[in-house]
Structures are given as structure tokens and as C-alpha cells.
Amino acid sequence: MGRKPCCSKEGLKKGSWTKKEDLLLTEYIKEYGEGTGWRSLPKKAGLLRCGKSCRLRWVNYLKPGLNRGTFTPEEDDLIVRLYTLLGSRWSLIAGRIPGRTDNDIKNYWNTSLLKKLKAQGNEPREHKSQAKKRRRKEEKANVSSQINRKNNNENKKKMKKEKIVEKHNIEDEEATKIEEQPHAQDFAQPVSDSNHNFTSSCSNQDGTSSSTSSSEIHSSSQNTEYHNQDEIFEKLQVIDELLLNDNCLFQPEKCIEFNNNENHMLFEEVYEEYFQLVSENSC
DNA sequence: AACATTGACAACCGCGTATTA
DNA sequence: GTAATACGCGGTTGTCAATGT
């Protein structure tokens, strides 16, 4: 079964979006919301664009509440820490940084932050998942060059089988990792969840999903030998409280106001302690 | 002034997964 | 149970403005 393209490419516009297109998309979503299906949206909104392209434009550029200002040192720090823990799971990282999108962070990481860190001699180690990905890519490249096209189908079947086995191996490894570092994943839970109790679904590297609630995290942390897990959890809760506050630290227009109030002092204090604890754990 | 290089960011593409029929 | 479809993610490429030569 060949996968069809997400949409017919014929007659569809590509490249930069015009103001008129932005307006059409914004107006449509304002009226009907995001949940009406991206595929059918362009036609309904009068756009000659692929639904995928519309989604991307909305999510990364037009959506209200996006922070398009320069990255603050706090955000830099947060990104580096989360990258160390999660690798290039940009959407998860973005979920912890209000107003920033995965694309934003990914671009910033690739164009600025990584260079900055290299210059400082603080280049982060390649994350486990990244190393695995890289190896798989290299292997794939080698294998594909050797595959005899006549036997392509057979090889595909074989690879499919191998993938299943590999998937199981990854799952085993993830499970082991969680056992070894009980809360490495916990830091990936979005701060901006509306229910605000850390209940969230989390996409794993292999694409599987898991969900954890704060109570589960808390109770499991009590069973761990890591003495500071509870403390980290508490700090995270405080940070979340502060981030969900109207005077969110990462909204630049509110920064001045924020800098002057007590919450900011508290945030800095808790933030400092939080990263100390995370550092101890992630090293 | 003209061209080359670099940096930042927007957008595209392909893949994996979830959902639907 | 399976194929078709839709969505979301991460890697990569394209574009354009700023800067250097």
C-alpha cells in the first residue's frame, strides 16, 4: 500500500505566506476553531494551500500567545537542560516553555544556541536517543546501498520484522531507563496543561504514548532511592504555579513588571534550586 | 557598488502513529 | 483485522536580510 500525499500538490501554492492568506486563515480559525480538520480547512477558508501548510503556519506563526521575542538566558538554560534530558524532542521541550513553538526552539538551537554552547566549551553530550537515531540512519544508508532492487520486497518484509523487534528493544530500554532514572521523563511534562496537575500524555521516542499524573509521579518518587526527587517535584510545582501566573516570566512585554515583583525573586530562587537538583540527577 | 558569505527563520518533506471506515 | 486517511513531529531546505570583502 503506497501512502498517498497529504494533499494533491496540483494548483497549490507553496512558499512564503502573504498577509491576505494569513488573514484568511486567522479569520477562519477564529470563527470555526482549530478542530475542524486541517485537510478540509484550506478549501473552506478559500486558501490554495495544503492543510499541512496551514497547520504549520497557524501553529508556528499566527496562533495567539506566541512569544516571538529573543530568547532569554533563563530560556536558554531551560532548553539546554531539557535537551540534555530529552534529546531533540522539540515538541516536549516547547511544551515546557510558554509561548515558544517546537520549530522556534529547533531553529534557535540549530542556528544559535548550539554554537554559543560550543564556543563556551559547554557542548552538550549527544543524547542517547540522538545517538541511536544517528546510528540507525547510518545503517539504513549502508543497507539501502547494498540492497538489490529485485529483492526489495523481501528486504522490506525483513526490515519490518526487525523494526518490530527493535521497537520492543527500545521499549525495554526505555523501561530500564525509567527504572534507573525514575523522573527523567517527568521533566518533560508540559507546564501549560490546563488541568494543572501534571496529568499529561507524553510521546516517547518510539512514538508510543504514556500518561502520568502528579499523584502517580509523587507516589512513585517516594519509592525511589533518589533522595531529591520529591524536592525536584515540589520545585517544579512551584515553577509551574509561577509560570501559569498572569505575569508569566517568558512574556517579554510583562518582564519589566515581573522583574519588580516578589514572584520573580521567588522564581529565580526556586529555579536555581530546581536546576541544581536536576543537574545532580542528570549527571 | 557588486558579489559572497553568514545567520535567522519560515516552510517543506517524509515518516511514524493514531484514527477512521 | 486491515487499508486508507489525517495528524504531528523532527530533519532538512529555501529564502532573505545583514554583514563582510
TrEMBL record:
Swiss-Prot/TrEMBL GO biological process terms: green leaf volatile biosynthetic process; regulation of DNA-templated transcription
Q: Does the keyword DNA-binding apply?
A: yes
Where, subcellularly, is it found? Nucleus
CDD domains assigned? SANT
Per UniProt, the ranges with Basic and acidic residues bias are 151-165
All copies of the HTH myb-type domain together span: 9-62, 63-117
Q: Kindly give the Pfam families that the UniProt entry links to this protein.
A: Myb_DNA-binding
Keyword list, A-Z = DNA-binding, Nucleus, Repeat, Transcription, Transcription regulation
Know the name of this protein?
Uncharacterized protein
Q: Which organism is it from?
A: Solanum lycopersicum
